[in-house]
Specification:
The chain is of the alpha/beta class. It has helices at 11-14, 16-20, 23-28, 47-51, 73-87, 102-106, 128-133, 161-172, 187-208, 309-317, 353-365, 387-395, 416-422, 424-432, 443-468, and strands at residues 63-68, 92-96, 110-116, 145-152, 176-183, 228-237, 247-253, 267-272, 275-283, 293-298, 323-329, 344-349, 371-377, 401-406, 436-441, 472-476. The strands form 3 sheets. Strands 9-8-11-6-7-10 form a 6-stranded antiparallel β-sheet. Strands 2-1-3-4-5 form a 5-stranded parallel β-sheet, sandwiched between helices. Helix 13 (416-422) crosses helix 15.
């Protein structure tokens, strides 16, 4: 049936006998379907520190848990699977796929893969080295057993393509492998994933302990997120008179408790009353020190002319004063991280300004002003989003450079990638000084155009080095 998860099920992990012992998980897991805005309930340890922990008591072979994550969902799920297995005294190696090599695979008889697909079939940015250096190799994986969880969004035609490619490669190398394709964090597909990992746990424990049952495991080990109830305090139209979709600033506050913690670059997830099965993610434009959680939401229209369900509810359906449960989701691949003290080149368009604003606000709060914003919109008369705020930051030295591109108006159409190409020498100088590049906004047009121009200016190898070192980060949609 169209839209149902595509599942290939060999006997090694999802056989009826092995699933019998985990059937109760499916009932307990129902609570997850009410809230699928994913994050980790507990603060996670650093990946390398986790893997340096003393060997577990069990003598079973180590399980490799590998993730490729663009927005943090796959990484969070990988941490949850790792936690559950380690709490059962099983040995686990947790790695991002860019740290996985042929030797790593050869040292692990079993593997769990949690991988996202971005756009029309692409791997996450940090997985580029793995795609080029491992997926092109021939590796003898005879006897290896793998389970692939492929995350995607059906709004894109090839929404699980990277997971499917990985699955096909594993099978071609001789591994016994299955995969589960998940549309937009579908609860039914995730139930199968949880059951499969739990069945693997039981199999490993039985092998290691001569068929004695292992220690009890949390029924709902794939923990639902902790949500915070926010109240919509203000909704402000930012582009009155624009010929594009209306763009609103939404300011949320918490009434009776402290704001939850987040970092610049993180996301807020919510489930709509009309669609509780699927969470929507939005870049947070503010920082906790602002005292409110701020979103920039464009009222979108589908190809058939109907309004977007989520944006229409946020922009017109929800009343000021109404409350909504929001979950903060760590977006590790777009956080500042090691780039916190570097010069920043921030590139975006439209509502993508939100993810860049949070970085600027975080750095300004820390007394840093070495950031360059390149931002594109339609008409200067109607679409100068937060223009006065940006001008004030420039005047006060909190922005080193501000370049704006207008695709409509009386002059020649100019896009942000055009401005970037015009400033190629300046860009090279900033990169040579150690600058990091952050891109946020639409994938089609802006995201693709910027990537193409950056390749022209810095070269394929130069951009690859920036990406693999974490100095080129994108949040495009």
């Amino acid at each position: 049936m169209e839209g149902a998860p595509r599942i290939m099920m060999p006997d090694w992990i999802l056989s009826p006998a092995r699933l019998a012992g985990v059937g109760g998980l499916l009932v307990a897991y129902a609570a997850l379907c009410a809230r699928v805005a994913w994050t980790v309930r507990r603060q996670r340890l650093d990946v390398l520190r986790d893997n340096d922990a003393p060997a577990a008591a069990g003598d079973s072979p180590a399980v490799l848990v590998a993730y490729a994550s663009q927005t943090g969902q796959a990484e969070s799920l990988a941490h949850e699977a790792t936690r559950m297995l380690r709490e059962s005294d099983l040995r686990v190696t947790l790695l991002p796929v860019d740290a996985v090599t042929a030797n790593t695979l050869g040292a692990h008889p079993r593997s769990l893969w949690l991988v996202s697909t971005t756009g029309e079939g692409d791997a996450p940015d940090h997985a580029l080295g793995f795609v080029q250096n491992v997926l092109t190799e021939r590796v003898d994986l005879t006897g290896h057993e793998a389970l692939v969880l492929a995350l995607g969004d059906r709004e894109y035609r090839h929404y699980c393509a990277f997971g499917e490619r990985l699955q096909q490669w594993l099978t071609a190398q001789g591994a016994k492998s299955e995969w589960i394709c998940v549309d937009n964090m579908s609860c039914s597909a995730l139930r199968l994933w949880q059951s499969g990992v739990s069945a693997l746990r039981q199999e490993l424990l039985c092998d290691a302990q001569e068929s004695r049952p292992g220690p009890p495991v949390e029924e709902e080990w794939l923990l639902p997120p902790e949500a915070t109830i926010f109240r919509l305090a203000r909704r402000t139209l930012l582009n009155a008179g624009s010929q594009g979709g209306a763009l609103y600033q939404l300011d949320f506050v918490v009434n009776d408790s402290d704001l939850p913690h987040w970092q610049s670059g993180d996301l807020a997830s919510l489930c709509l009353p009309a669609d509780p099965e699927h969470a929507r993610d939005y870049s947070i434009a503010s920082i906790p020190a602002d005292g409110e959680l701020q979103l920039l939401v464009r009222q979108s229209t589908r190809a058939d002319g109907s309004p977007g369900v989520a944006s229409n509810w946020l922009c017109t359906g929800m009343n000021v004063g109404d409350s909504v449960a929001l979950t903060i989701r760590q977006h590790s691949s777009f956080r500042l991280g090691d780039n916190a003290n570097r010069p920043l080149i921030l590139i975006g368009n439209g509502s993508g300004l939100a993810g860049l604003l949070s970085h600027m606000r975080a750095r300004i709060a820390g007394g840093q002003g070495e950031q360059w914003l390149l931002f594109g919109e339609r008409y200067p008369a109607h679409d100068a989003i937060l223009g006065e705020q940006l001008r004030q930051w420039m005047q006060r030295g909190r922005l080193a450079r501000l370049d704006l591109a207008w695709s409509r108006g009386s002059g020649e159409r100019t896009y942000v990638q055009d401005v970037l190409l015009q400033q190629a020498d300046v860009l090279k100088t900033w990169v040579e000084r150690g600058a990091a590049i952050y891109v946020c906004g639409s994938r089609q047009g802006m995201g693709q155009g910027v990537h193409h121009v950056l390749t022209q200016i810095l070269g394929d190898e130069g951009l690859r080095v920036l990406s693999q070192s974490g100095r080129y980060r994108r949040d495009v949609y």
